[in-house]
Design a protein that fits this description.
The structure holds two protein chains of two kinds. Chain A is built from no helices and eleven strands. Chain A is mainly β. In chain A, the strands form two sheets. In chain A, strands 2, 4, 5, 6, 9, 10 and 11 form a seven-stranded mixed β-sheet that branches. Chain A has a four-stranded antiparallel β-sheet with strand order 1-3-8-7, with no helix packed on it. In chain A, a hairpin with a 7-residue loop joins β9 and β10. Chain A starts with a strand and ends with a strand. By secondary structure, chain B is mostly beta strands. Chain B contains no helices and eleven strands. In chain B, β9 and β10 form a beta hairpin. The N and C termini of chain B lie far apart (41 Å). The chains are: A mainly beta, B mainly beta. Chains A and B meet through β4, β5, β9 and β10 of A and β4, β5, β9 and β10 of B.
């Protein structure tokens, strides 16, 4: 069974631009969560989607948003990029009724 | 929300040595996972262990939920065990993991 996939793997954007990252969960998984990893703040939860609905949200500004499609694929969008948004963005998925999460390889975003 | 703390922050071992990594959490949890982050950034699942003991080869883990801690044991360490080990926990509905700060392990040949 294929693992969680994320695209693109690497991205360079300029301050003020917006970016969209994509995550495809493991087949059969319906919950998708997003995390941001930075050297200063570590790994932090962004949001979780289940059956196309946001189920949990972390403490991030409204510039960070996400959505989930009917096939469980998820996208996250960051508008008006700031230098501090440079990070590794990780996506995880889990089966319905399970708490165990499986992570994708991540998207490394650099904002210049 | 819950707090998750890991110790030690850094660990250097000779190949073949054993080690114990600790994870303390501040409240009851329904999810406790250990991960190894590879050099490219991917989090590799090691254990899903909200309570009890599990073993997988040279690695084992124990979570004592009533005392709010979990331990990851690495026996006969190899250079390929190097990297950062994360503990993460969640409580309540949904999958909102709170991560510890990690333990950076270096195994020397």
């Amino acid at each position: 069974k294929a693992g969680v996939t994320q695209t693109p793997r690497y991205l360079i954007k300029t301050r003020g631009q917006q970016v969209t990252l994509s995550c495809s969960p493991i087949s059969g998984h319906r919950s998708v969560s997003w995390y941001q990893q930075t050297p200063g703040q570590g790994l932090q939860f962004l949001f979780e989607y289940f059956s196309e609905t946001q189920r949990n949200k972390g403490n991030f500004p409204g510039r960070f948003s996400g959505r989930q499609f009917s096939n469980s694929r998820s996208e996250m969008n960051v508008s008006t990029l700031e230098l501090g948004d440079s990070a590794l963005y990780l996506c995880a998925s889990s089966l319905p009724g399970s708490y165990e999460q499986y992570f994708g390889p991540g998207t490394r975003l650099t904002v210049t | 929300g819950i707090q998750v703390e890991q110790s030690p922050p850094d660990l250097i071992l000779q190949e073949g040595a054993n080690s114990t990594l600790r994870c303390n959490f501040s409240d009851s949890v329904n999810n406790l996972q250990w991960f190894h982050q590879n050099p490219w950034g991917q989090l590799i699942n090691l254990f899903y262990i909200p309570s009890g003991t599990k073993q997988n080869g040279r690695l084992s883990a124990t979570t004592v939920a009533t005392e709010r801690y979990s331990l990851l044991y690495i026996s006969s360490s190899q250079t390929t065990d190097s990297g950062v080990y994360f503990c993460a926990a969640a409580q309540g509905a949904g999958n909102m993991l709170t991560f510890g700060g990690g333990t950076r392990l270096m195994v020397k040949p």
